[in-house]
Fold these 2 entries.
Entry 1:
Amino acid sequence: MSSEFDHAAVLAKCARGEHDALHQLYVHEGAKLLGVVLRIVKDRGMAEDIVHDACLNIWQRAGSFDPDKGSARAWIYSVARHLALNAIRYRNREITFDSNDPTELDQDEHFQHADVADDAFDWQTGQQMDSCLKQLEPERRNCVLHAYVDGLSHAEIAAHTGAPLGTVKAWIKRSLLRLRECMA
């Protein structure tokens, strides 16, 4: 690969109905999309279904992408994240009652309420993490995000940012320490 993947061009091809563009997008971003969605829903089967639905949604809505409002890659990931968050909301609304006694909760609902509590904790943790990330210098924050959200290696981050490899490693290490302190 001599050039960087052009997400906007691929979305434009999707909008024109070029099936190969969706395949290119899936090959290039599918595993990373799955990783992001899996972190949200914590269920591999559900995550795979959501990524599939996200790809269909991206295909169908590619013409609505507006480059003036943000990057194509961010738009693609926002489609997947929104579907994942909606799936969590829907899953948490499902309530199953014991058919013999509607006043008693069956075991599945008990576990669903436990999931709601866990998700609320995850949401609060996520908000706290956002706040802590905002305290980092932008280039250091971006390095952490490239490593833990995009799944890039230190070398890939160095190439992407133009910073020396040792500097990137130091930034990430120090940033993680600051994040750990902030989250405590």
Note: Residues 95-99, 102-122 have pLDDT under 50 and may be disordered.
Entry 2:
Amino acid sequence: MPIRLPELPADPDGPFPDPRTALREPDGLLAMGGDLTSTRLLNAYAHGVFPWYSDGQPLLWWSPDPRTVFRTEGVRLSTRMRRTLRRSDWTVQADADFERVIDACASIPRDGQPGTWITPAMRAAYLRMHQLGHAHSVEVRDGDRLVGGLYGVAIGRMFFGESMFSAASGGSKVALAGLCRRLVEWEWPLLDAQVENPHLLTLGAESWPRERFLQAIAPLVATQESFDWRTRFGVLPARALA
């Protein structure tokens, strides 16, 4: 029997279906349709929902159960990685080159994925979000070379991670650890990592029941935080993460 999904209303401020009604198989599939306006995306993230689809598919919205989450103080780097960082000249910044980060995330080959879910429409949508101050990147550099990074969406005191990449061994790990170092300093307790994979678990990610996740983010997204990310983040030496 074909799956019949709720279709989103034309109004980007219109409500999403209750995430608790998402399908069990495929896990978390909640709704289809709508658009990728910044208003709708912010509405989605604030309610524990995110878009994920491939070229040729309709726009699909997800809220998986369980949800993969980092406690920002709980990111783990291996002993070997920490030893390497003590001798590293890498630096970590934010919002220094959002466009290059999202393009790198889209182009890096990934195991088990024939292509990218960062479609041209998704790329354009998150670039708009960045220009409006809602989407942010973290860049790891070795001199002028971009060796790793990530990007995601910030609402209130909650960061929703979207994708990360490495162009040198450990680049994405340093981006995540650097971001979480700053988020701890800013008293942002959680980072959403969406869907579990073995790599994230080695870095300290946890699997939370969806209900716990939704309850945890509700007060965080309701707070008011407004600042220039690039300035407040500053330049963090990677060796400080060792």
Note: The longest strand covers residues 145-155.
